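Recall the central idea of this unit: under ordinary conditions, the amino acid sequence of a chain determines the structure it adopts. In this exercise we apply that idea directly, starting from the sequence alone.
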Amino acid sequence: MVLALAALSWLSLCGSGLADTRIALVIGNSAYRSVSRLDNPKHDAALMAETLQGLGFDLVGGSARLDLDEATMRRAVQEFGAKARGADVALVYYAGHGVQVRGANYLVPVDANPSREADVDFQMLDVNVVLRQMESAGTKLNLVILDACRNNPFGGRGLRDGTSGLAQMRAPEGTLISFATQPGNVALDGRDGNSPFTKALAETIRRPGLDIFKTFNQVGLEVKRATGGTQQPWVSSSPVDGDFFFAGQTVAPASTSPSAAGPSPDPAERAWAVTQNTTSIAVLEDFVRQFGATPYGSMARARIDELKTTQTAARPAESPIERAQAILPNPHLVPRMIKRNVSQGYLNLRREPGQKSEILTRIPAGETAMVGGCLMPGDGVSRFTSCRAVWNGVVGWVSSNGLE
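Accordingly, the structure predicted from this sequence is:
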């Protein structure tokens, strides 16, 4: 009878999905003082805070924490670590600037103003500090969600190692880390008040019947569709004990078939369900490091070989952007001023090199963009030199004659 009651209690917990103790810290940094401000993180954080509270999460501070300086940000993380002790689920969501330096990822408070690489340890927050707080709390499941894969705003200030996007990192035991896009890539801010990643995340976690692996896989598919394939969210996960549903499980009819037994308990199988459709070799190599001894490791290695063959094979026709990527695989972006005397009063940021490509946005004269990796004229694309540029999180191309 004791075993039966325990089993019924466990089924009740899984069926509701909301009976566990859930703690969350939500941070959105927009109002940066020394670098370009960001429009959407404050809105993204507010959306996530409202969504998580509706799903039974107890928020540190009672709401989204907005525009935190370095000292306040550290206190918030420390408060989160104390509140998460003994909880079932601990979640940290961050939207704002983030940078990678020497392979480590840092979240950027609004007062950060480093003049050299060594300043990051004192002016920014290493993501590993958040992970250590979770480990110390002894939480059963830890979730770290980073909508921070933007361009490096300090690229011209001595942070030469800091490249765009965030670095690949391995999740500790019982932890899932979700990035807005793949390692080293830049995520889009969005144009309707929320980033494509956070908008998809907030909608998806409200759907019952999705465990965390299916949840983030669905988020990735929706973001990929919404951005035309230019942004693909990425997940790093260690084996997770048990199942977690943000919005609870759906009630399925009783069945004795294996397919009705619920999600597979095999962590390699569940991780492969999230990873198998990626086009990132780095993500697949990370999967092989974690699950290389399983049958899914063999499939991942085969997928790596397939992608390498595809990427090195000669293609009959390349678009201007593909030719540019082949010439400039990793351009070093530096701040450049948009000329104040440009004829239209703004400089077009286009999807591809040349004057005929779609205009993504217009950069007002006098603004500063991150620029680097230029294509010389004479390639049949443009009469002027075209340079890769990032402004307000939008990645595109500008004509160099509009730069100072």
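DSSP finds eleven helices and 16 strands in the chain.
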